Structures are given as structure tokens and as C-alpha cells.
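This is your field. Please look over both lines of this record.
***
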Amino acid sequence: MVNQRPNVLLIHGHDIGRYLGCYGVDIETPNVDSIATDGALFERHFATAPQCSPSRGSLMTGRIPHINGLMGLAHQNWELHDDERILPQYLSDAGYETHLFGLQHITQDTDRLEYDHVHSEGNLYPGVSPSVHQANRARNVASVVTSFLEKSAYDAPFFASVGFFECHRVEEENGRFGFDADYYRGDEPESVRPLPYLPDRRGIRHDLGEMHGMVYALDDAVGTILEALAAAGIEEETLVIFTTEHGIAFPRAKGTCYDAGLEAALVIRYPGVVDAGVRYEDLMSNIDVLPTILDLVDVNRSESIGGRSVAGLIADTETGYNERERIFAEMTWHDVYNPVRAIRTGRYKYIRNFWHLPTVYLSTDIFASESGREVRETDGIPSREYEELYDLRDAPQEDDNVVREPRYQDIRRDLSKQLYEWMDETGDPLLDGPVVPGDYEEILSWPHDSS
């Protein structure tokens, strides 16, 4: 049966950034690569935040974290504002049957998401123990998705959000955080290519080799789902999107507003509609994904969505295309207070830090990892500059802060002004002072004898 509108299959990985073969990484990911071969790949797609819940909230609302309310992790008392609309709600109103498979991590109340069907239990927090949330591991999620595709009658177009646990670190018995090498088969440290923004040290190679096992498992699961889609005879009428929410869980990546922390994969396949085999270098933010999907399936969207659709760039649509000259990113709360705002253009990155912070923020899972041990003495100490400016042409790894150099002062002032104006226009609460955590009322509920 051919639906009036296409099915929408949104597959998303965790803590994986662009660590994929189709993005030039020395790792084999043939199944994700096949989506790129048959569709569109975005070379410069970035998240609004270098952490899970805020980035995922932007993906699902088309709005930045300090606007939609999700400025910290969903399991730490941060929530979307009550009036926020998310992608499955837009599609449900247009007649889609909506399904949630695996991880979501944007709310503690799954009912708030209003999916018609929730297929996985425990789909909030990815977990730090190897035994936690087995249902969210890629192999298990793919099995459930396959069963759904085999049994469905497709009387209405469906939307399926498919979230994988991989590549989140897990806490091991020794208290360190790794990639569950007992469950996944990775690669030997000597065989992996070092990361360009980190020193080539044994502990970092060790972690990369372990992480490869998770990447392989994720890619295998994508292949399982694509095969099931083809076997069901509906791949020609299904819009497939594969994306990730921020950079890998390594120092100077996850939890930072450097490119390695904000980078995200985005590949889109829609046979006969999206131009196949094209790689786009246009700047793109993950708030742009929701309006792009809605335009591709011809569903109206709210004017409050802050993202810009790229449907007019990748397909023959009447929606037009407004190219980005800049993107914005932010971080406020993770496991500690880390208030940062950033603006990126094609050539420059300007970062404004709003607190006394270590040289490089290391989230708990990274700090307590083999990789974290390699850089703690240099990165985990105070203090970070309040302003950072990088010329990405000359220093693509953002390792040369030129904020004080005379020849960059016009650029510094211009980007600083643009960042402030953006914060002011969007009502960023950080301009009014420190942002209290989501559990602030609990902090204040201090039983004491006032007599």
C-alpha cells in the first residue's frame, strides 16, 4: 500500500558524533554509509548543545535549550516547558501513527511525549551500569523494530523514533568508565587512528578501540532495520534519517562547545525525492532537522520553531532555502554547572564562558575513564578564559585561542556582539545571572529548627 505521505524512520545514536566511516573516520560502518550513498549527508551539522537531553530536546522541538526549557539532563529534574510541541505530536496531528523504540532521554514522563505506542521499557536514561537498560542496546532495539515492520499493516503512515544506547560509556567494577568490552568486540589499541584533537596516548587508544565495538553494534543494528524495511516492501515510501546528538565521550569532545563536542552526523534518504549521493557543506544546526522533516512530508509547522528547513536544498520542494551564516550553541547544566554560550561561522568560533571553570570540562564518565586519566593534569584544572576565539582555518582543532591578538579584535567584537544580541533576543536567563539547577526547590527544602 502506498501512503499519501511517507513513513518517517528517525534513527539516533548516543555519544557518537561523526565517528563513522562516511565521515572519513577509519572505521567500517557500511550500513550507515549506505544511507549516505543513497541520500544526503551533511558535513557541517552541529548540535545546539554538547550533551544528551538539551541536544535531543532541540532535535525534537526545533528550538534551543534555553527556550524550550531543557537546559540540563532529563533525569536530573530538567523538563521541556509544558507548552512545547515535539516531532511525534506534529506528525500525529497529520494522521501519523507514532512509535517509540529504545532511548529517548528528553523527559522523565514518557506519557508527556504522546506516542501512540511505546515499545521499550526504561527508555529515559541510558544507564551507566552494563546490566542497566538492556532493552536500549542496538541489537535488542533493532529486533523489536524488525518485529514491528514484519507485522504492521501500514493502514496509516508511521513515525518511528529509534534510539540506541551505543556509544554511551558504562561504569565498570573498578569505578572507571569504559565501553563495556565484555559485551562488545572492539579493536586493539594499536590498530586505531588517534584523534586529531588529543595526544596520542595509550589510554586514549585503549578507549577508542573499545568504543569501536559499540560503533560496530550500532551499524549492524542499522543494517538489520534497513533489511526489514526492504523486506516489508516500503523502503521507497519511507523517509529515513540517521543522526546523532553530540560528540563522542572523550576529552575536548562531549561536554564542550568545541567542534568535536558539537559535531553530529546527519544523513537523510528519501528515494526519488532527496538527491542521492550528495554531500553538503552548508552550516546546519540540529534545530533544523524538525522543520526539514515536516517540509519533506508536507506537514505544517508552528512559526515558533526556530530551525530552518533544508528541504529546499536537498529536494525539489517549494519551501525555499535560507542558508545559514552562523549557528549558536550552549551548555548550562550537566553533572555540574558549566554555563557556556558559543557562536560559529564558516571560519570562526567564539565561546563565552560564564563561570570559574577548569581549562576543559570533563564530565564524570570522561573524567573517570582511561582517556580522562591521560589529560586530567592539564585539562581538569582551573582556569578557563572567559572568552575564546578560534580561527578554524588556521586552528581547526581549536587549540590556539586568539582572543587577545590585535589582528582579531574586530572579529572578537563582532562575534561577541552577535552572541549577546542572540541571547538577549531569545530571553536567555543566563543574562540575568547564574541559572539554578532543576532540583533547586529540593535544595531549599532544608528542615531546620527555626525556634
In short: The chain has two domains: 7-314, 326-432. The mean pLDDT is 94. Residues 7-314 form a domain with the Alkaline Phosphatase, subunit A fold (CATH 3.40.720.10).
